[in-house]
Amino acid sequence: MKGLILSGGKGTRLYPITFNRAKQLVPVANKPVLFRVIEAIKEAGIDEIGIVIGDTGAEIREAVGNGKRWDVKITYIPQEAPLGLAHAVKISQEFLGDDRFVMFLGDNVIQGGISSLIRQFASSDWNSQVVLTAVDQPQHYGVAELDNEGRIKQLVEKPRNPVSNLALVGIYMFDPNVFRAVNAIKPSWRGELEITDAIQWLVENGYAVHPYIHRGWWIDTGKPIDMLEANNRVLAELAHHVEGYVDRDSKVDHLVTVERGAEIINSVIRGPAIIGEDARIINSYVGPFTSIFHHTVVEESEIEHSIVLDHSRIVGIPSRIEDSIIGRDVEITYSPIKPKAYKMTLGDHSKVGLL
Fold first, then answer.
1. CA distance 194 to 88
2. Most buried residue, 27, 88, 170, 302, by most Cβ within 10 Å?
3. d(Cα 171, Cα 216) in Å, to the nearest integer?
4. Alpha helix ranges (H) inside 123-265
5. DSSP 3-state percent helix, strand, coil across the chain (nearest 5)
6. Could you read off the pLDDT of 33-90 as tens digits, one per residue?
7. Could you give the count of Cα atoms lying within 13 Å of 19 in the half-sphere of its Cβ?
């Protein structure tokens, strides 16, 4: 089998974090989401992976390279515009050939990986397998209706009146018959070739499409609140370790990872949390469910339930920062002398709440 990762899209729901950065490269627990997807596919025994890229393709190429770090071979497949998931399959036919493949959205995080699913599909005679999970607001997703025997009856993309709460989670397995489907369907009202329409075509034309209902957690990291939730989930499951320096005046509990080169000075870190490479935490408090990325400084400040990206500085903030995503090269400081003031430089579409 081969792997196909979809990493186009502009990530507008994550602005300003993704204003000039690929959304798939935003880190969860200090590892880009796209890297987690590559690892999940590799762990399933697949070492040939195509990545469909769009406007942020240059950044993704630079970050991922040829795949050597994961012992996989990466092929990049440019998509001229975001014309739909089925369109991404269509333009990947040369790479995929006659092989079965798994398609994985590059901004999804799922509990437990996909190894068992790949084994199940590889040993079956199914033409497709789709992963479903129950969600609270199915109108925002592709939704599946099952018949009384648990087979897929109907698929609808982002329905106004959902027929069920079973959403497609962005993991699909196909054999080459999918190319008949993507070439047979027409663009939807959104102007896109919908993967739900392609799968529906397979169902209506007698192909075996097997639904798999995922019982663990799954998160589409498309919005800031979802990114924080994904960070929470992954931090809670990490095997934590300390490679950096922790001085004798600091308190770091067993649910904290301190990566190499990081320094914790006279500070309290309560996990689950992760402190990135060459980061410095000085006279500060870092609370649960916080990820501090590489080369970042937190000094004389408190922060929890947040994600801080690389090369940022948070210095002398008198109030605790919570529920926040702070981008790269951000500086947040506070002047204690008159006129007292917060000092910050913010990009387009930023949101700030102050007490």
1. 10
2. 88
3. 14
4. 178-184, 195-204, 224-237
5. 25, 30, 45
6. 899 899 989 998 999 999 999 888 888 999 999 999 999 999 999 998 888 899 999 9
7. 11
Give the SS3 label for residue 18.
Answer: coil
**3-class state of residue 294 by DSSP:** coil
Domains and CATH numbers, the chain: 2-234 (3.90.550.10), 240-344 (2.160.10.10)
Query: Count of CB atoms within 10 A of residue 53's CB?
Result: 24
Token pair belonging to 219: 């998160």
Q: What is the DSSP letter of 140?
A: G
Token code pair at residue 93: 């036919």
Residue 70 three-state SS: helix
How far is residue 107's CA from residue 90's CA, in Å, rounded to a whole number? Answer: 20
pTM reported for the whole predicted model? 0.85
Pairing of strands 73-78, 313-315: unpaired
Rounded distance, CA 282 to CA 276, Å?
A: 14
Tell me which H or E stretch contains 156: strand 152-157
Which two three-digit tokens encode residue 262?
Answer: 């990081």
**199-236 pLDDT, tens digit each:** 999 999 999 999 988 887 877 766 778 889 889 999 99
The answer to whether the Cα torsion of 42, 14, 173, 152 is positive or negative is positive
Answer yes or no: are the C-beta atoms of 196 and 84 closer than 8 Å. Answer: no
The DSSP letter of residue 12 is: G
Q: What is the pLDDT of residues 294-319, one digit of tens each?
A: 999 999 999 999 999 889 999 998 88
Pairwise CA distance, residues 159 & 355, whole Å: 40
Copy the structure tokens of residue 332. Answer: 């947040």
CA distance 275 to 244: 9
255's tokens: 């649910």
Q: How far apart are CA 317 and CA 343, in angstroms?
A: 10
Q: Which residues contact 257 (CB under 8 A, 6 or more apart)?
A: 30, 238, 240, 241, 242, 271, 273, 274, 275
